Amino acid sequence: MLGSTGSIGRQTLEVARWRGYRVVGLAAGKNAALLQAQIEAFKPEVVYAHPEATRALELPPGTRLLDSPEAVAAHPADAAIAAIPGLAGLGPVRAAVESGKRVGLANKEAMVAAGPLLWELAEKTGAELLPVDSEHSALYQALLGEAVEDVRELILTASGGPFLNGPEDLSKVTPEMALRHPRWRMGAKVTIDSATLFNKGLEVLEAKEFFRLPLEKIRVLVHPEAYVHGLVRFDDGSLKAQLGPTDMRLFIQYALTYPRRAPTPLAELPIPGILHFLPPDTERFPALLAAYAAGEKGPLAQVAVNAADEVAVEAFLAGEIPFTRIPEVLFTLVKEAPEGELSWEAIYAVDAWARRRAREVL
Fold first, then answer.
1. Which of 100, 105, 191, 267 shows the greatest Cβ crowding within 10 Å of its Cβ?
2. What's the CA gap between 89 and 70, in Å, rounded?
3. pTM of the model
4. Cα–chain center distance at 53
5. CA-based nearest residue to 219, from 319, 291, 314
6. Which of 35, 88, 78 shows the shortest CA–CA distance to 58?
7. Domains detected in the chain
8. Rounded mean pLDDT of 68-74?
């Protein structure tokens, strides 16, 4: 489990308890107390934690401390769930794919930045890549048994975030307001991205790379009930959709048990009576368009806009810039992003440049 103390990590370990899985590796950040509890509960063979947290850990006999999340990712196992956020999660994803595992991707940035390279690597090693994000899992499920050449469009749904119904003027939005997501409790970065709709933009780019379809075949609908997670429209006009409760454990388990659907405690949850679908308001939430612009420009622009967003969101949370400044920074970095061939070296070089440039722009 890569990112064990985050939201996806905690839910994955709940699924492991449901299924009786042996958890052989945990990689985490600075939350030493929670990681210690996880170590005691699952008794993994290997562990990684941020250096600030390692001093507080007490490892039981048989558990070794490794020096990187990549080392945990490469440890022998049947599957890895990759949920270390941001570009920091790319190295562990690469290591898991290199080791030939099934990799459940909850880190969208890895596919956004390095999708073609990860697919090339998976084809060499025999690794499986399955989506954990609910929207991409929904599309994956809807596409099973279908010919990709018959797909007219993929439709990702968005709840609309905390500002779906106002305020009209977002320039006075505070971090506290943006962090109050009406539906989910997530990390601060993902929550702010949900508020700007850039999270949905990253998901568009992830879908482009994961399903290897043109950007123009991927669009977004706002769906406040968050019960339909993704739709596929085919050339004959028919639609297929994946519907179900908004509980990430459902999608985590599917990535681990595919192609089987094992029983869960979620099977009897009620079905909502009314569902709504709305076009996204890109005038109020232009960050979504910045993601599309990056996808149109090329793979290195996708790396740059992802890095710029991490810098801009951090500045907003620190009270240094207004909420509406975030998409301005994104568009600037897309415009200035270099063009060229995608490589592992280029990804990290462009990421470093984009972070420096975004700070200059700010």
1. 105
2. 9
3. 0.95
4. 24
5. 291
6. 35
7. 7-131 (3.40.50.720)
8. 98
